[in-house]
Amino acid sequence: MAAEVSKNQSQLSRIFKQWRRNRRAVVGAFILIVIIAMAIFAPYVTRYEPQKQNMRNRLQPPSAEHIFGTDQFGRDTYSRVVYGARLSLQVGFYSIGMALLIGCTLGLLAGYYGGVLDNVIMRVVDVLMALPGFLLALSIVAALGPGIENVVLAIGVSYVPSFARMMRSAVLSTRELDYVDAARALGAKDRRIILSHVLPNSLSPIIVLTTLSMAGAILSAAGLSFLGMGAQPPTPEWGSMIANSRPFIRVSHWAVTVPGLAIFTTVMCLNLVGDGLRDALDPRLKNVG
Amino acid sequence: MWRYIVRRLLSLIPVLIGISLFVFLLMHITPGDPAQLMLGEGAPAHQLEALRESMGLNKPWYVQYLSWLKNAAKLDFGNSLRSKKPVSMEILDRLPATAELALAAVTIAVMIGVPVGILSASRPNSTFDNVAMVGALTGVGMPVFWQGIMLILLFSVTFQLLPSSGRLGGLQYLVLPAVTLGTAATASIARLTRSAMLDVLQQDYVRTARAKGLRRRKVIYRHALRNALIPVVTMIGLQFGGLMSGAVLTETIFAWPGIGRMLVEAINNKDFPLVQGTIMTFALTYALVNLFVDVLYAFLDPRLRATYE
Prior knowledge:
By secondary structure, chain A is mainly alpha-helical. Helices cover 73% and strands 0% of the residues of chain A. In chain B, helix 5 (87-122) packs antiparallel against helix 6, helix 5 (87-122) packs antiparallel against helix 10 (216-253) and helix 10 (216-253) runs antiparallel to helix 12.
């Protein structure tokens, strides 16, 4: 047992070492941490309230007072972008958390038990995959009505199929391994086999998928808000900021440019971290690139 | 091969029925009364009731669904609540614009993505490779709607080179929307072509080809590329889903009169039959494109071709 623990630790540290060698991933992780910290400490790193209007100070270019200028209501763009990070990160976190929980459970059940259950679950997954993720989320939000909670739910559902499929195939490939057979022969119950053998073995693809999906979820949420189906004004949300300030880009483009850069930076960093993790976790790709 | 295609076509039927049920139920739970929407706010109660009765809205949902499905199988999705025209006509009116946009985007993606991926893989970790891959990451991470607005800001507002909206009036109207929609696909295809090439270049037959004294260039284009392109074909198919999603946003930004923009308008107008019809069109197109790509894949890979014959 003790040997197993230390072996696990060495494996973790090997993966971390491998990951750390990927400079892009490290830079991505660093920027991501900065973004998360700014979101958490938003009141301390901003000077203005995100929703405070100042009609005498509309559509200003960047200045010492407002480093990213102001929008059509004279609100400070920088403050709104920082507060917007809270919302976007939370949407990414909750929607993918939901997809992870539901998708992995479904995938586990389908892969481990097979048979009728597998068939039923996978046919439902097939149906959900019949539409591209964003369109699926869009139709769900269309039915539930606009609002950030509905966006979380819709994006969560749209990511269930990928987690279910990945988990199922991971289970199918580990189920037949000798040590799982051995555990079963020793009389271990299904629950124990799943929790202590199958699940840990399927962890690495899931970590990678989670990171990359989080990036996709943030993009989708911004897109839905841009279409007016997500966060409603005056909530500071990146996608809706872009949509609402868009008519004014001829006068001042800052309230559109900066939120877009924020989405882009966050998504790119998540992708960099995810790519790095994939390369570190998948030894097959280790020497490539 | 034909047997495989037919089997795949048949397997689409349950999936499409499933998605139609899903979309129907979604629209069913949506608050809003279609009869009210058709007649307007001040309509008298007896007229509303008569319309509901004639539209079958008083029947249980599964009866409504079955009659909708029966008509949908004949491509009759009912009439738009707003324009009162048949949904299928509305879709056919708008479909060419979306097809044109998507085709242009795919063309851009393949013409740029594949060569960039090959060049990157043939000189891994070179300056070109690094610049290209950072560029590709940028392309994947950029929100399509923001990129569209930035292109408008640059090419329409600042330099006044290209029109910012509309479709009729020539090819210049297509440039910005197609570039916007094609960017993410270009980036993904470049990344995948690169990794597929690197994978193939490590294979034994490539080493053999080199060992027998063939030139590097010849090995890359004659031996490696053909095999590396097979997964790329699948990727182009997978990108199609992203393209359809991107089309909704791109068409909204550039006022491009396709079905993506129509879907957003229909959702905002609570035009349920039009929403259902449009989503079913998207699902059907998606399914057919994926089927086409799978068949093409089997056709390109002799090992797979043998299994299906």
